[in-house]
Amino acid sequence: MLQWGWPRRWFVQRARLRPGAVADDWFVATLDYDGLCVTLQACMASARPAPRWVIHGTLGSYVAHEWDPQETQLKAGARPGEAGWGWLARPGELWLSPDGVTAPSVPQPVPGCAGDYRMFYAQLRDALAGRGDVPVSGAQIRQTMRALAMGCQDDASM
């Protein structure tokens, strides 16, 4: 939430779509900032996975198709630091429009970078030992918790 500050307005819709669902399994949240609109969504009842990230701008769009692979790699027995650790199997796609009007026809592949959750915990360790900054501030944690709590209310518009 702190990346762009607190949104001017937001609206959250939630639903239970699967038969017998005891918790919400679908949501869409729209966050309105000055000059920026962010849409977050998830659906546990989808037959086809949606892209992980879709970012649109006036001269193009970026699409990432995969989640961070580290958890799946750990479950499969891989260990941090091994060859291929944290790398996405499928590159993202950059769709560029030369003039902001003409639709791009062919995406350019954009390889990601290797993820490594250990860096966060190393920063936290160092901060607790007095050798660095805390990787996430208390203000960031409070704003995230506030957003989650507000999104869980029945009237989740602001």
UniProtKB/TrEMBL annotation:
GO terms for molecular function: oxidoreductase activity. PANTHER family: CONSERVED EXPRESSED OXIDOREDUCTASE (EUROFUNG), CONSERVED EXPRESSED OXIDOREDUCTASE (EUROFUNG)-RELATED. Residues 15-150 form the Gfo/Idh/MocA-like oxidoreductase C-terminal domain. Belongs to the Gfo/Idh/MocA family. It comes from Tepidimonas taiwanensis. Keywords: Oxidoreductase. SUPFAM superfamilies: Glyceraldehyde-3-phosphate dehydrogenase-like, C-terminal domain (SSF55347). Its EC number is 1.-.-.-. The keyword Glycoprotein does not apply. It holds the Pfam family GFO_IDH_MocA_C. It is an enzyme of class 1 (oxidoreductase). This is Putative oxidoreductase YhhX. InterPro entries: Gfo/Idh/MocA-like_OxRdtase_C, Gfo/Idh/MocA_oxidoreduct.
